[in-house]
């Protein structure tokens, strides 16, 4: 049993000191916050557990929760655990078309064979369609807070099924045990240097591993205060999240959050109070150093320091965190010669540096080949870089990242497989990277690459070249590579009207890829770049939609040939 995460669910004595003054502050839609103390949340969770038990849910069963961030979602999450069951947080509907959402979510429910699915009254019809599509004859259970309380049951070994943020109707559920969860939470708290009285703030979705484990369960495990928003509330008002750091010390967020806040708020960042902010774990997508430096310069008058950033590497298959920076010194950066990258070969480092201080503006030379260090392995974690045969490579050599340790999960649910492989108690992650001076530098998914001129070319690197050559915002473009019997091709998707930039983009791609790779440019309005819940481009899905002619208002500007291969 997880004492850290479940012991507070028993009714705390009324003499428990300031425990009754701590809890979760939920953002409302009027610009304010609704406070729910831990005793209130624990009582509600016990009532949900009683309702689930009355429906026949037994310890070890899987219960799905299809709810947006809010008190019912938190009550359900901890209520499932109080019932002794395994929880699976299902993404609530966001911006995807309903048919696509039903297909993807049904793929999750089909795997879980859930004993119950908890939802809200307004989502019940959609949840019923998902259950039907999953082949279940069960009806969704609408969350209520009126059941009979029960004392928390002893849970089984499996704490949660964490589904990865892919795009297919066959998503993969990672089996996270209580031992995995406790080990990773201890790693995160240690890296953050969490102190008594510290608080956190987050807008990340709770169905995502960084939002659930890094931002919700980390403070809950020490019964700390947390300010919690929904993702759409952050999009509407990023300053609301930032204002939390007048009192909150910790958060985790993808690089997009800082880039977006800087673009939306600009010089108004200087008017905020960020003086309490000590740590921001940054990960979940390739890290653009320039975007983080831009935010740091604008936010410096508000008390923000670049040392707040903790660039990190992790993945759901390792519960969450693998490496996290813990030093107060600015993170190191390197610029590599991308033209000489070879898998299992040495990496040519052209330049070494560190995050720019807020007072210094980095040279305007783009981001091509510039990478940021993501720290070393956390306590008890083993991280190495290996070749195709799984043999460790020396520092400074490019290979696949392999992870071992107590946070490594027991595999995918229902026999699923993926580019991340579970081998001999460890994980071959499918991510490419190298170590330099004790720091892990990550290039990206090995599947997000193709061979050109006899070397590996990474889609993130091509996107960086396009951004540098055209000035397009990083999140407004995505490159998809395809290798097949018809040859090799890349497609650049850009949320920008046709213009002279198309020629600039084509020229820089041609220079990187050579004459044998076909190049297609697709332009469209905002929303053309389809992304996963963690902000990563759904490259294969976008290519398939283009090939099927399902991209609305998109314009194909150049197509050298059509390939019959698969997108990488």
Automatic annotation (TrEMBL):
InterPro entries in the cross-refs: AMP-bd_C_sf, AMP-binding_CS, AMP-dep_synth/lig_dom, ANL_N_sf
Native organism taxonomy: Bacteria, Bacillati, Actinomycetota, Actinomycetes, Kitasatosporales
PANTHER family: DISCO-INTERACTING PROTEIN 2, DISCO-INTERACTING PROTEIN 2 DIP2 -RELATED
Pfam family, one: AMP-binding
Name used for this protein in its record: AMP-binding protein
Naturally occurring in which organism (per UniProt): Streptomyces asiaticus subsp. ignotus
Domain AMP-dependent synthetase/ligase: 31-413
Protein family (similarity comment): Belongs to the ATP-dependent AMP-binding enzyme family.
